[in-house]
Amino acid sequence: MVNGIVMAGQQQYEWTEAIHRSDIQALQHLISPDVDVNASTNRGKTALMLAAGKGEIPLIDRLIALGADVNRRNHGGGTALMYAAQYGKMQAAKRLIAEGAKVNLQGMKGWSAIMIAVLKGQEPMVELLLAQGADPNVRDMLGWTPLMRAAHRGGAGLVRRLLDSPDVDVNAQNQFGTTALHIAAGTGSLRIAELLVEHGATLELEDSVGNTALTLAEQNKHKAVADLLNR
Hints:
This protein is mainly alpha-helical. The chain contains 14 helices and no strands. The N terminus is likely disordered.
């Protein structure tokens, strides 16, 4: 039994080392019912998180079959679905959701899978997550919503996909009273400002220091946006 315990311990060590090295081939070789598939690196990363981020569907399937926890978190609160969202791995995300991955879990910064997808510019992933019940109004630790982050990123496509959700709050304000329209006006993003106005953004809303979106557009000399907001 001693030799068996030593061998099992060595195999488990090699497993976590393979995760640390992002070595998919080693994991495929080591995987067996004798391995704790939920074991993680010192930062809490599991093989399922790695496989999700790489889009390795056969490995994901095998890990789940052996009991991998689809909602397990790393030390930052990240899940396998968040890894898939970050890297735009659509099939991995679909597989995880089908196996019970929760789409609205949030990490330490308040980022959920949809927020991460927005930050990384993963438009199809945003659409998938919305279709699977992701909250378009989820707030991070600074009170920012995905719509605000999309406006700040300058992604008109991302903004359009979020605005297609009937539940999105186009006038949500963060802790400083800033809305997505404030952000678009301040950065001079005309197309995004147009989309927000078309979807009911309130022009008169003020941030915490009394600025409307028009004020910010004028202060930053974004004439086209100012003209839009001054009609």
